[in-house]
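Feature request, filed as a ticket because there's no other form

It would be nice if the structure record came with a short human-readable summary line next to the tokens. Right now we just get the raw output. Example of a typical job, pasted below so the devs can see what we mean:
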Amino acid sequence: MDDLHFYTNPQSRGCIIRWMLEEIGVSYETHVLAYGGAMKTADYLAVNRMGKVPAIRHGLAVVTEVAAICTYLAETFPEAGLGPSPGEKADYYRWMFFAAGPLEELVTNHDMGFEVPQKRQGMMGYGRAEDVTATLEQALVDRPYVCGDHFRAVDIYFSSQLIWCFNAGAIEKRPVFEAYADRVSDRPALKRATRLDEEALAKMKADAA
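Raw output as currently delivered:
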């Protein structure tokens, strides 16, 4: 189980997993895949039949879906301190999967210009954008991080989804969101991950030229 492989594209949700891997601090091999053909080859489809990134392969274990990868890595490398303490588990799992469910659903529909009819809002995981905004604010009131005083893996995923959401205009920007975004954006691991993705993107462009 020592070999850790990371499949990504620097212009994908793989940037979240890159950040997670840099926070953990373990060695890993990166496989950068271009959109289109590279993600649909037989070799990669054997890793993820969906033909999408990101994915990780850890020994024989394959994990896809960003929230699942973050959760897996936090639990597999507990020495990084990114998993929840016993008292943090309720908030940790609640907000990890709120970000993976209602929040992602909201911003995806918003980006596609899909407006949920009022009579159908009860069918959607997020209901209304106003409810999501108020709920997100509740998660961050009077605490620096989602679980309280300590940065955890959930903050990597939650903050990435939150920043995407308010940058896209899917929810209202509020001071508590911006303060949280500034706080997590100052982490050295995120800066390393961003630099690595920028270098990978530059190489992809050079190779395609």
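Something like this underneath would help us a lot:
The beta strands are 4-8, 29-32, 55-58, 61-64.
The chain has two domains: 4-80, 86-188.
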